Amino acid sequence: xxxxxxxxxxxxxxxxxxxxxxxxxxxxxxxxxxxxxxxxxxxxxxxxxxxxxxxxxxxxxxxxxxxxxxxxxxxxxxxxxxxxxxxxxxxxxxxxxxxxxxxxxxxxxxxxxxxxxxxxxxxxxxxxxxxxxxxxxxxxxxxxxxxxxxxxxxxxxxxxxxxxxxxxxxxxxxxxxxxxxxxxxxxxxxxxxxxxxxxxxxxxxxxxxxxxxxxxxxxxxxxxxxxxxxxxxxxxxxxxxxxxxxxxxxxxxxxxxxxxxxxxxxxxxxxxxxxxxxxxxxxxxxxxxxxxxxxxxxxxxxxxxxxxxxxxxxxxxxxxxxxxxxxxxxxxxxxxxxxxxxxxxxxxxxxxxxxxxxxxxxxxxxxxxxxxxxxxxxxxxxxxxxxxxxxxxxxxxxxxxxxxxxxxxxxxxxxxxxxxxxxxxxxxxxxxxxxxxxxxxxxxxxxxxxxxxxxxxxxxxxxxxxxxxxxxxxxxxx
Length: 478
Known about the structure:
Number of strands: 13
Mean pLDDT: 79
InterPro entries: AmpC-like, Beta-lactam-related, Beta-lactam/transpept-like
Number of helices: 14
Structural class: alpha+beta
Domain Beta-lactamase-related: 86-360
CATH superfamily: DD-peptidase/beta-lactamase superfamily
Region (Disordered): 397-478
Protein name: Serine hydrolase
Subcellular location: Membrane
């Protein structure tokens, strides 16, 4: 093992600082008045010294797991062109951790445990738990309407709970904004998107609470509601409520207009950089950068019993959409796989620009799989099944399910809907290993329409652009 770290630290930020920030919030807002209690280590590692944790790794079964994971990593995952970091842990103890590739294609800085990645839709887990933290501290109620925090919002009958479980029926801002934004050279903010919705009232997809539809608008609105209910900026709230208390020193909310931070990875496709688009100023549904070790701290903090009451976690991990039969479902900010024996996989994956992320949690035995990549590679998602089998979770999928579910067949920059993910083929296959059953999770499609990138084109270049698009389309079909 490369190293063994204590997973979580005690509080580094005092309640006085937190309360002072709250007192400076705008008049009339509900200010957060208390910081969360200190975060302890997990129940499994609280009383273990580094030597005792090292002894756990020396157990024959864990040594075997490390060897099998190492073979999979070197013989299969690296062959997909993997560029990023991977960590596998059980009961808070890291069994396997490796890093490969570069943070950006220019400087060639190698990826390490300090490298931070755009977490894309995995950011939704922080937004969701931020809302639930405010609920626990009586700053909001899940049955509150959106209008309680966003006056003038034109869609009636939608509650905070419906935003959390993707049952609002709202249109996806990634698709309707491109038809309404006049100056694509500017980064949109949450308020910009809300103003567009108030002014133009894009059509809803269905009435509220009539069915599940994965939708980034929901979590954009939740990011704004966090600000309204807490009286703090979204980034400040997460920093003081989660990042600092848990010891997530490398984690932050992205600001596309701020200078790039050290070890902040660049999104890539092949060997070229993927530029930001005007959607990168929107937060709540994406926009958090984190490192592999920090994500393990986030995972373990949710087991500690110090951030949330158990009944709050039970609410977050409860399935809310039963229109389609099967084990897959969605809770409050978390994808779920619910098995007949009562076992659960709680997870959220992400995809934004060239970033592909996996954050999978087997909550019954606290097994965790974290794979973060900044170079477009769908092999990251396919890696979950064989890794799960190695860890003893080969029965964590329905019979007949395909481990490649959730891989897009459309062009990488084309809009992809949740419905598309049920019938897609492999773009970057992972070599198969023999297994009876597999654990399968699909990634969250958090894409943007290519045609709406913030690029100013003169009239004289339109023909060239059209020809280039035709050429690109032909190439993709091949």
